[in-house]
Amino acid sequence: MRYIPNSPEERQEMLSMLGLGSASELFRTIPEDVQLGRELKITDPLAEPEVIAAMEEMAARNTAATKPSFLGAGVYSHFSPTVVDHLIQRSEFFTSYTPYQPEISQGTLQYIFEFQTLICQLTGMEVANASMYDGSTAMAEAYLMAQRVTRRDKIVVAKSVHPEYRAVAVTYAQHGDTEIVEIGYDEATGRVAGLEALDDKTAALVVQSPNFFGSVEDLKSLAEAAHAVGALLVVTVTEAISFGLLKTPGECGADIVVGEGQSFGIPMSFGGPHLGLFATREKYVRSMPGRLCGVAYDKDGNRGFVLTLSTREQHIRRE
User: Does residue 238 sit within a domain?
Assistant: First the structure.
C-alpha cells in the first residue's frame, strides 16, 4: 500500500469531529517525558539504488542465523525447500476465503483434510482440526476444552511449559472460572514434579514434552496420574518434528495434544505468530474448537470434502 499523507484540511476535519483543536491535544495523554519535543531528524531523500545500498550496508552488520542456535525458545531456523514458497502463493492456498461452499472449494478442503490426517499420524491422536492461531492459543483453548469435557475448573500446569504459552493461557482464562495451579519440576532432570496437586477437582494436567528445558517427559506415567483423578492429560510441544522420533503422545495416553507447527516450514518471522496444532480423541470431537474438514459422499457415491460438525449458517444449503 502506498503512503498518501493527510492534507492539513483533512487533519483539521478529523480533529473537529473529535472536538479537538490541534494534534497536540490528541496526544496529550502521552507523558511529556517520553515525547520527542522536536521535529524528527531524517536524512535527505535518496534514490532507489542509494536506499538499497544503505539497507544492504546496515544488513551486513547483522549476525546471520546460519549457525546452530538454541536461543529461539521454541522457534528455530529450519530448512524449507524453495518450492514451498512458490506453492503456498498459488491462489488455492493463499486465500483468506473460507471454503463455505464445498462444490467450488474441493481443492482447499482436500489439503485441509490431508493436513488433519498427517497431524493425527504425527501425534497418535484420532482427530485433528484445521489448525489454530499458534501454539500458545492452542494450549489456552485446550484449557477451555478440558473444562467443557470434565465439568471441572482446575487446571494443573507444569512450570516446565513454555512461559509465554502459560502467560497467554492466563490471559484467556482470567475472565472465566478457571483456576490455574502451577507445579514445579525436578531441578536435576527437568521433569515434572508436584503431582500431588492433582485432585478430583482437576480438569487437566498440562505438560510439555520435550519441555522448555529440552527434557522428554514420561508421558505414560503422567497420563496415569491424571486419569487416576478423572482429569485429562494435555500435552503441548513447541517442536512438533520431535514426534517423528519419540513415541507419540497418543500412544502414551494423552487426551489432547497441542503445539506449534512453525518447524513444518514456516520462517521464524521474529518469533511468530505461526501455526497452532490441535488434536484429540474422537470421543471429545464435539468439544474441540476450530474448523474440522471431513469426507462426505453424494447420492451417486462420489467422495467429497466438506466442513463438518459445525452449525454455522454459511455451511447450510437452502435450495
Answer: yes
